[in-house]
Amino acid sequence: MRNANIFTIVMAMILIFISNLSNPAAANVDNSPSIDYQVISSQAEIVKPQSSNANGSLDVHLIPKGSTTNANRDPIDVVFIFDKSGSMNEAGRNPAKFQSAKNAMDEAVRFFKEQAGPNDRFGFIPFSSAVELGKIVYFSPNNPHESLELINETAQSLTADGGTNYTQSFESAMEMLSGSSNNKYIIFMTDGEPTVSSSRETVTYNEKKCYIFDWFCWETDNRITEEVTINYELYGQKPYTGYKAFFEAKGIDYDLRPGKGKAVNAIRRHGLNAAQNLAKQNIKLFSIGFGNHSEVDIGYLRKLSSITGVTARQASQETIAPVFQDISADIDTPAISGEVLVDIGKFTGKVSVPEGSNARVEGNLASLRFNFNYPVNQGTPQPIDLSLPLGFSEIGTYTFDNIKLKYTNLSGEVVVVPHPAVSIEVKADAPPSFKGMMDITGAVNPPDHLVKVSGSTDKMNEFKVEYSLEPTGLVDRTVSGSLNNIKLIQPLPDGISVIPSEGVEISTFEGRLAARISLPDNISYSNGSFRPGKLLAVLDLKADWAVSNVKMPLAHLQYTDSRFGEQRTTITASNQIINMKVRLHEFPANAYDGDVAGIVTKTDLSQNGRRLGITEFPNDYGLKNKPIKDMIFKPGETNRIVEITYFDNEKVNMYLTPDYRLTGIDSGRIYEDGMTSYENLNMNLVHLVAGKGSKYYYSIENKNSSTAWTEFSPQDTIPITAPGLNSVKVKAEGGLAIPGYQVIKTITIQKRINAINVDPNPIEIETGKTIAFNINIEPADAYNQELKTEIADRSIADFSGDHRLIGRSEGRTMLVIRTKDGSGITLMVPITVKDPYIALEELKFRKAVFKIGLNEKIAVTDLLIFNPDNATAKSIELVTSEMGNKVTAVLENGTWYLVGKEIGYSNVMARAEAQRTGKKPDASALFEVTAAGDYGNGGPAGAGRW
């Protein structure tokens, strides 16, 4: 039973595993950034010349993976090394050159002030023939903005003079950066080649003796060997008219005469050694060559930077500011840096790395450094190819079985990835190979500053790769043969396409789009030489969308050797980078530049590309975080809207002016410019201006009241309630907003009546009487308060004046009130007219028999009952007595009285006035006249009888 349970569990696990394989989502694939790699030999078999090393290489294909959504980066240390040598203003002939460099520093400072974290640090080292110690700006802990302000002030105060000393500048920066746990960077700007340097070297010299304040000196025969600091200096115009190499020993100066070439080489070697030391400390050196090819050895600067794993850029007065901005943005981007390590120690000196290569050798390890930027939400960076050149001093098979990739990921973890062994066989005789190099040049712009201008055919986004292929490896002078069917295959980076030309085909190679160049020449060899001795090939390319820090992959060369058959080798990838931005010109001198991250920068081309505004991510104005392919002004929008096309052909609008919507508060209806509204409105922004730091203002003008320009947030709702014509104005400032542009819409608010109230309601009135009524209109400021008032039956009630009614006859009718403003409101108020007359239905004496005293006087109405008591006509018209001599009826002042005249009896009749029906109610009662005070049953004594 137990075994059955185990079997069930194992089967369940297998099913889960299979399910995860068939459903990748279920496997929870990790997409965090990482680096993979492949290492192969450029050629498996190479030949060893008799008197020199065999030359081969290991090709490294670095494959970044994953992406990042985390914008947080580790703290950084940045040291600006700024060339202030005399060539920076051409001995005063071109002060604008030096000023443009200062302006570029200002742009870089502004960028870092916006982006700096609390633990970032910034320093500044100006140099010429030596570091200008009094102008160094050291790190200010926990106050990056203070350092940046001081850096900018210092840079602006510099004057240009002196030579160009790379080495001591690098050493000063390395000293400043030592001991820091931050990511460390140098931004090195120079406009020339190194002409000054110092280094510790061991020399042997004849001792000098000097006398009389060192005026008289001569060399002795005493030979001294020691380590001293040798100072090298080139002077005069390039290629330099002179040089100096000198040192000091025991207070006496000694001159060396190594030859100008050796002095030049020494100075350049010192720079390379300094770069090697920077790489040891994980310091990245971003170099900027400020000048043309005759002024700056950009190849040398690329080598210096590539040793530390990054790149060099070439800049002109027009591009120096954008180049500074690009490098600053690279430093601010999360990155994975590392190195590929190859152990060559096991070969006991038989394998070496040629001097002057991009590799660094420390102990037994040869190292190639690399750096991959991971822009936030940008997907995976493109692969890069590196080559480790190797020299082999003996024939044999060399197996490199200790190859490692080592890098620090974005979480700060050190990752080490071993690689399977790679072998190179060195033979006395092997198929001829090729030494090759590729060089990239722009058709108009340098390849690291390509620009695709919208609507233009000026080729500023085009470049060419030139290949120089030199056959090599023919050591046996007795053999002959030929190299035929030579094809160069160049894989293409994403975003780079081929400009059609003869002999170039588009194909795929190892799963990547590639250009295949068929070389028309065949090479023959005999007597130890090749004919021709060199082949040239050219590939015309263009950047289709914005790219950044892209490198051409290494090229593959396929050919057929008549002696050995099919062969292949690789051509080392250039360390040049390809950058391209998409540009949209705006009259007269502004431009919008879109980059690989979807960022759009507005610049002033008349001020060397000074930044006027920039977009950012995340944003609320609709731009995407992906490479831009094209930008145009949207037709019909008078340059207010830029239509952006991304690399995947998605299009979005980028607004340079705000727009807003007017919406009815009650109805939700959207009102267009110039319309009339019968309700209050809300104003809300619907199109935000692109760009960091955009601010919004509104103003509402009305003949009765106006609002001054008032800042508001994009999420705010602004009510518009003033009746009449309203001019609603909105403008934006900052970001990419068009300065001073106002979006103006007019809307007329004609408030309709939404309610009518009448007081009193309902209305009651008596016939013949009048009553006033009040009409209240809501809202009180309704634009048209004219009403139509009617009475349904004017025989019952009628108007007796303004807001007054008179009752005409008893009955019910309606007061009808209608609006005239189009609101369609009708109010019907009931009117009841009542007749106030109440007919007297019955008249009675309070009892049938009354006693009245002799000569007593009694008001008749006091003895009567009126029914109803509230009858309108209750006047007594007539009172009569049958026995007038006994009881007399007397009318005095409108009132009837009865007076007892004689003891006896009399019937008295009282009759009311005529009612509207003509009826005159009456009543009768018996009155007995008795002696005064005799009100008993028999009446007073002596009063007679019944």
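The record above closes out task 2.4. Task 2.5 opens with a second protein, given below.
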Amino acid sequence: MSKTISLNTTSEKGIWKSYLTLTKPKVVALMLLTALVGMCLAVPGALPVQASVLGLIGIGLMAGSAAAFNHLIDQKIDAIMARTYQRPLPQGKLRSVHVFSFAASLGLVGFFILYVGVNALTAWLTFASLLGYAAVYTLYLKRATPQNIVIAGIAGAMPPLLGWTAVTGEMHANAWLLVMIIFIWTPPHFWALAIHRKEDYAKADIPMLPVTHGVEYTKTSILLYTVLLAIVCTLPALVGMAGLVYWVGAMLLSAGFIYHAWKLKFRPQANSAIETFKFSIYQLMLLFMLLLLDHYWAGF
């Protein structure tokens, strides 16, 4: 009897872990960090508790919903690729109908929380981001053009604006500047991974840039984008959103990203692409943490 209970408990834990995997928790965590920074930079003093807490919960739920829909739509592709074949749907751990219900439920609950507990603007903007990622990118752009991640990057870049609107109820140019940083960051971040997994994408017939235009062309594009990103990252300091702490840190992080891109282009090693990809994640995370540190440092 005890052995049966133990097996059932293990099975239940495995199912819940599979559902958690669908939401891409690490990606959502980074998105919520950028949303929180958007909130903090939007108001001079303390954050409004209800709008902030419910805003992060709603944004997180809808981001998890978009990720789950991505798993559902891409399950045939995921089964082919070495990076994704162990996801819950290709492994048969979950049924498609259950994943659809899970994704839809997350999205509906998240939208309700934002619409009722925060404001309509944030709810509809977050819904638009969900559609942009789950439908426009995953269903169409991903399979249609090598510029897929560039065009659809705006959907994944929205969290700082969503955080801003959650606590203010309005869009502001400074919030769009934060969106621009993530929008420019996304292509070199993702193309580095695409180089590392080029054969996977070719096998799945996905027209990622390294597949359609070659690895060298993609490396050049990554390098040029990191230079452009370095310029864009100076803008918060130039417009008065941030001060010296952010500016110095941002320049160091940008130099690191440019170095990794330069090394990928001119001194490549076997792991250069994946190392560039990994560095880009830390770069964005630390960049937004610097914005937060600089914002509150200036208050002392």
